[in-house]
Amino acid sequence: MGLFDFFKKDKESTTQQASLDAGLAKTKTNFFEQLSKAVVGKSTVDEAVLDDLEGLLVHSDVGIETTVKVIDRIEARVARDKYVSTAELDRILREEIVALLEDNNSGSTAMLDRAGNSGQPFVIMVVGVNGVGKTTTIGKLAHRFHAAGKKVVLGAADTFRAAAVDQLIIWGERVGVPVVSHGMNTDPASVAYDAVRKGVELGADVVIIDTAGRLHNKVNLMNELSKIKRVMQKVIPDAPHEVLLVLDGSTGQNAFMQAKEFTKATEVTALAVTKLDGTARGGVVIGISDQFSIPVRYIGVGEKMTDLQLFDRHTFVNSLFKK
Ligand SMILES: Nc1nc2c(ncn2[C@@H]2O[C@H](COP(=O)(O)OP(=O)(O)OP(=O)(O)O)[C@@H](O)[C@H]2O)c(=O)[nH]1
C-alpha cells in the first residue's frame, strides 16, 4: 500500500466512522439516558440495577434471549468480583456485548474480499420482504463493489412489482453497472439465469440478483427461491455463493420474525440490517446477530449510496458506547 492509498484508506475509515456514529445517534441517546436513570444515586451494581438494565436492553430491541445472556454474564461478573461500581457498568456491558458477538459472529468474511476470486462471478441472491430497503441495499452494494474496481451485473428478478424493476434500473444507471431485466410479471428465474449468463459473458466479478419477498405465501416463496437457485446453477453450479437477507432494523421484533421465516424458506448465509439511523432501538443488530448463527455482514445507516457499512462488532460496539 502506497502512502497515498494509506491516507485515502484512513480518510475513508474516518468518514465511515462518522457516518456510523451519526447513524447510531438515536440509539445511543436513548440507551444512555435510560442507563444513567437506572444507576442514579447508586454506587454498586445490585439486583435493582440489573433489573433496570434488563428492561433497557429489551426496550432497545436486543431481544429477550440475548438480553438474558448479557444479564447472566454481568451477574456472574458481579458475583465473582463482589463489588462492581455503577461507574464501571458501561465498560463491563460493552465488554460483555463484544464477547457475545464474538461467540456468535466469527468467520464472517467480507463479500468484497471473496468476490471475483474464483475466476467466475460471485453470485449474491438478495432476499427480504418489500419495503425493508432491499433494492436500496443492492444499489449501495453495487456502488461498493464498483468503487472497489469490481465488475458488477444486477438482475431485476423482483418482477412482482413494476416499481422494484424500475428502481433497480435507476440504481444501475446511477452506479454505472448493467441491469438485466425482462420487465414486470416475467419469470424471475429466467431473469436470474440471464443475469448470471451476462455476468459470465462480461467477465463480471459480482452478480447481484434482486428477488420478490412475499412472506404471506411461504410455499410459493420457497418454490420461487428454489427455482431461481436451480436455474442459476445451470450456469454456475455452486451459485448462489451468498444468500443475503435484508432486514429493516427499525421494525424490531418484526425483523426477528422475518429472519425466522426466511431461514425456514431458504438457506440464508448473511444478513444486512438497514435503517439503523432511523431508530432508537439499534440493539436489534446485537440480538439478531446472537439469535441466528448467520453473520450480519452489512448495516444501513442512511439513504445515501455510501451509507452501507461492513458490520464489524468492535467498531459497532465502540460507536454505540462512544460518548
Ligand atoms: N434512513 C434510511 N433509509 C433507508 C435505508 N435503506 C433503505 N432506506 C429507504 O427505505 C425505503 C425503502 O427502500 P427500498 O429499497 O425501496 O425497499 P425494498 O425492500 O427494495 O422494497 P421494494 O422496492 O418496495 O421491494 C427507501 O425510501 C429507502 O431510501 C437506510 O439504511 N436508512
What does this structure look like?
The protein is built from 13 helices and 8 strands. The chain has an 8-stranded mixed beta sheet with strand order 3-2-4-1-5-6-7-8, sandwiched between helices. 46% of the residues are buried. The protein is elongated and about 65 Å long. Helix content is 55%, strand content 12%. The longest helix has 21 residues, at 3-23. The chain has helices at 3-23, 25-39, 47-59, 64-81, 89-104, 111-114, 134-147, 162-175, 188-202, 218-235, 253-265, 284-291, 313-321, and strands spanning 122-127, 152-157, 179-180, 206-211, 242-248, 270-274, 296-300, 308-310. A hairpin with a 7-residue loop joins strand 7 (296-300) and strand 8 (308-310). It starts with a helix and ends with a helix. The chain is an alpha/beta fold. The site of guanosine-5'-triphosphate (GTP) has 20 residues, from helix 7 and helix 8.
Strand-helix topology:
Elements: H1 3-23, H2 25-39, H3 47-59, H4 64-81, H5 89-104, H6 111-114, E1 122-127, H7 134-147, E2 152-157, H8 162-175, E3 179-180, H9 188-202, E4 206-211, H10 218-235, E5 242-248, H11 253-265, E6 270-274, H12 284-291, E7 296-300, E8 308-310, H13 313-321
Bound molecules: guanosine-5'-triphosphate.
Low confidence ranges: none
Helices, by number, come to: 13
Order of helices and strands: HHHHHHEHEHEHEHEHEHEEH
Largest sheet, in brief, is: 8 strands, mixed
Can you list the strand order of the major beta sheet? 3-2-4-1-5-6-7-8
Helix content: 55-70%
Spell out which ligands are present: guanosine-5'-triphosphate
Number of DSSP E strands = 8
For the record, give the distance between the C-alpha atoms at the N and C termini, rounded to a whole number.
33 Å
Percent of residues in beta strands?
5-15%
In round numbers, the mean pLDDT is: 86
Class by alpha and beta content? alpha/beta
- Rg is 21 Å
Shape: elongated
